[in-house]
Amino acid sequence: MRIVTIKDVARAAGVSISTVSRVLNDRQDVDPQTRARVLAMVKKLNYIRNQSASNLKQLNIAAIGVILSGRRNAFLTDLAEEVMQAGQGTGFQFIMDIIDEKASQFLAARKLYMEHKLQGVIFLGSNLEGQENEVKRLELPQVYATIEAKHLNSDHISSVSINNYQAGAKAAERLIELGHRSIALLGYFSKAGDSTGQRLHGAVDAMKKAGIRYDDRLFCEVGFTLESAYKGMKTLLKRGMDFTALITCSDIMSIGAVRALYEHGKRVPKDVSVIGFDGIELCNYTLPALTSVRQPTRQIAAEAVRLMKALIQDQKAEHVLVECQFLPGESIQEVKS
Amino acid sequence: MRIVTIKDVARAAGVSISTVSRVLNDRQDVDPQTRARVLAMVKKLNYIRNQSASNLKQLNIAAIGVILSGRRNAFLTDLAEEVMQAGQGTGFQFIMDIIDEKASQFLAARKLYMEHKLQGVIFLGSNLEGQENEVKRLELPQVYATIEAKHLNSDHISSVSINNYQAGAKAAERLIELGHRSIALLGYFSKAGDSTGQRLHGAVDAMKKAGIRYDDRLFCEVGFTLESAYKGMKTLLKRGMDFTALITCSDIMSIGAVRALYEHGKRVPKDVSVIGFDGIELCNYTLPALTSVRQPTRQIAAEAVRLMKALIQDQKAEHVLVECQFLPGESIQEVKS
DNA sequence: CTGAAAGCGCTTACAG
DNA sequence: CTGAAAGCGCTTACAG
């Protein structure tokens, strides 16, 4: 298949490539008839503009990068979709790059920047733990969605997230309200800059406040996959500890855990109440429907785009906290007395 | 943030950009000391090569495009992952583009080709129905994964898929073996070049062969989403027809349908046996675990890559059928007599 | 309103 | 082993 270039279009339309370029870029200083002729040839030859070549010479491209960490993360995929939607009509081109959870988000950002001369980059679901140096080296407007980046204290970094600590506390409080006094935890602890750790810390602190002792034999470290949560839950169950409720750090973890509980003869919510985070669509369809602390994806996406635009216009950085919502579900109930 | 170019590296290393280019491309005709100096500067300046600019001048780029239709399709996402894995070490660069299910896969392919001078393109999960003209216009080695493209009869088009018709028949036969005589269907019928239609046709024919009348009131047209399957199942249930089994065209459809059945007071598999297609990881974790006709993603991915390499080397087109596997699950059982 | 020329970051023959 | 020059497909001042 031949590559059709601007030259081919120019030749076919009998004009110079400058003129074709003007038409393609919707400039107004082109004779209407010339424009029509060029557009006719574009169509006839099936010309598609080489965006990379176009970017090469342009100095100020209105492009924003979106980096999604985690290929198979249903929540982030949904969020990404909402970001693309929110980006419509902003005049910015949104360029998405999906990377492996373990790959460096900063390398991906730099690479995208080099090729597309981004004005800024939105990170979805990344982890900031121990990456302060990398963040500093990326001298570009940055918006972190789903994690708080206030502690980075930079004038070109904004963030939008739920208050993960508080959300964790809320999940625990809800269970405590229902009479639960022994609550297991699935996820991983970590310092600031990582959502799962904050959720667990919030939950543990709420438990302490209610006079419930935190016993780390009721905790198992698991990642954001079905398999990891399933295995973690099995490990936890083998310890033989009693518990009537479980907090996981994501709905996917909940699904894996519910299965492990079921195979161990424990029913949800009859024997164990389960509450997770994110509130993905799937929650409403599983049996039982999953109770979750929902992150409002649409609102997070809209804020992320707004914050990015503000940073680009040299307005100040902001760290927005959006309200999480309680997705009732069917996976929790009052503890049997 | 400044863009670091090959020029900056050249200046810093005290050599010409030609030399830097040689080092970057691992050519052997460079003095080891010069090479070391250049590489040191690459590292120091954090230089990242602008792949687009690099592609621009190159004539024969060993790049293969991978187009995934359907952002939120768990099965295809898994398959894509496997394709990327299978592509490792082939010497080809695999460039993936995820497009909306409704967007044109051919436009995406042409665009990718124009920018990356692809040698060929692998389509994951696309639909060929009524697109014969578009296919013809894409004069590029093409491999269709998950659908059969034999009927296109082209020397530069291969495909790898399960035998969808036969898989549909197998699903039905399995249910018939278990004594089911009234089987509902969820999905959509269509002509050749679309997997879901073939599955349903296979199922219906198997039913006929077993002397079961196909009643279209036991069919509801739904798409590949939880919501669509859930609603479709509800619609079907409202008709008040009796049935003891259900075949859906994907596991995601099964999940939506199982939920609708449950809300209607029907238990799976006690009241209704459910069997779907794909065999995604989630099947093993839902309650009940879902019975499915599994498509072997790893094998499909490996074949797709092999077929593409063969086409590029001007070997002949092939249409490979891989064996589907039965994922037992817990969602089917013998019909109650 | 239009075209010729320079240049974006890179590679590739061609000289030396 | 190395550099200068041309050119990939495009855009952008600059002339006219």
SSE blueprint and pairings:
2 copies of one chain form a homodimer.
Chain A: H1 6-13, H2 17-24, H3 32-45, H4 51-57, E1 63-69, H5 74-87, E2 93-99, H6 105-116, E3 120-124, H7 132-137, E4 142-145, E5 157-162, H8 164-177, E6 183-187, H9 195-209, E7 219-221, H10 226-238, E8 245-248, H11 251-263, E9 273-278, E10 291-294, H12 297-312, E11 319-322, E12 325-327
Parallel strand pairs in A: 1-2, 1-3, 3-4, 4-5, 5-11, 6-7, 6-8, 8-9, 9-10
Antiparallel strand pairs in A: 10-12
The structure holds a DNA duplex (16 and 16 nucleotides).
Summarize the structure.
With 337 residues, the first copy, chain A, is an alpha/beta fold. Helix content of chain A is 42%, strand content 17%.
Describe this structure in words.
Two copies of one chain form a homodimer. Chain A is of the alpha/beta class and 337 residues long. Helix content of chain A is 42%, strand content 17%. Chain A is built from twelve helices and twelve strands. In chain A, helix 7 links the parallel strand 3 and strand 4. In chain A, helix 2 (17-24) packs across helix 3. The longest helix of chain A is centred in the last third of the chain and has 16 residues, at 297-312. Chain A is elongated. The N and C termini of chain A lie far apart (73 Å). The mean pLDDT of chain A is 92. Chain A binds chain B through residues 1, 3-4, 46, 48-53, 55-56, 71-72, 74, 77-78, 81, 98, 107, 110-111, 113-115, 117, 137-140, 226-227, 230, 255-256, 258-259, 262, 281-282, 284-287, 289, and chain B through 1, 3-4, 46, 48-53, 55-56, 71-72, 74, 77-78, 81, 98, 107, 110-111, 113-115, 117, 137-140, 226-227, 230, 255-256, 258-259, 262, 281-282, 284-287, 289.
